[in-house]
Amino acid sequence: MRKMTVAVLCLIGTTALTACEKSEEADVSRTLKDLNVIDESNLNDVMLNAADPNEAVAYFRRAATSNPEKISLQRGLGLSLVRAGRATEGAVVWSKVLEHKESKDADKIQYADALIRTGEWKKAEDMLDSVPPTLETFERYRLEAIIADTNKEWKKADSFYEIATGMTTQPASVMNNWGYSKLSRGEYSEAERLFTEAVTYDPSLFTAKNNLVLARGAQRKYTLPLIRVSQAERAQLLHTMALAAVKQGDVSTGKGLLQDAIDTHPQYFEAAVRSLETLES
């Protein structure tokens, strides 16, 4: 009897241990699964924000092929393709994302962005129109502004640009686009103001610096603005201003600026030398 009791107790103990082991295995499995999700999410963010665009494309393409049901990987592939300057491929991926059962209205905005980059303006406009007006994001208003600009709907464009700049802490690129819009309309002083603000927010944005010089040149302001530039950038801006002066008919001023550009550049400035030789001949 005592032996049977001991056997039963051993059996109960073994069963309990087995149950504990299974419970621990399940807990470990769940923990590892959660960690994998966290690690994958972090890696996705790293690849999107820090990696070389083409490396990100390769990563997300491999991951999406292995896990075709994960919409997050498809989104990552679409974003990285656009970042890598492969908007046509990106548009194809985003169109597939929209077919996924977990797709959202925000995906339509990304698709519209890819479409704009491939020149499919009407399709991009229709895609944005299909997004509910309650979804108000920086990216949405930025794209709305660009499309309104293309349609020469200036009041709408200005309104959208203004809203977009207020929805981000890094408005330099939007201000540069807005300034270029003003420049194309002939509103040179307003364009100059916007380009100056863009450079204030991002001193490394050379496109805005160059556009600022164009806006000043259109007003016959042939001095460089007080902005931070490298020696090579200063030479390039002088070259831009020289060409703006020539376009205005101020050829002698243009020649002087070209000579300044050549003297300023730390290396041989072939483009400026060729422009000066053309004017002198």
UniProtKB/TrEMBL annotation:
TPR repeats lie at residues 172-205. Residues 1-19 form the signal peptide. The keyword Signal applies. This is Tetratricopeptide repeat protein. It comes from Litoreibacter roseus. It holds the Pfam family TPR_16. Keywords: Signal, TPR repeat. The keyword Signal applies. It comes from the Bacteria.
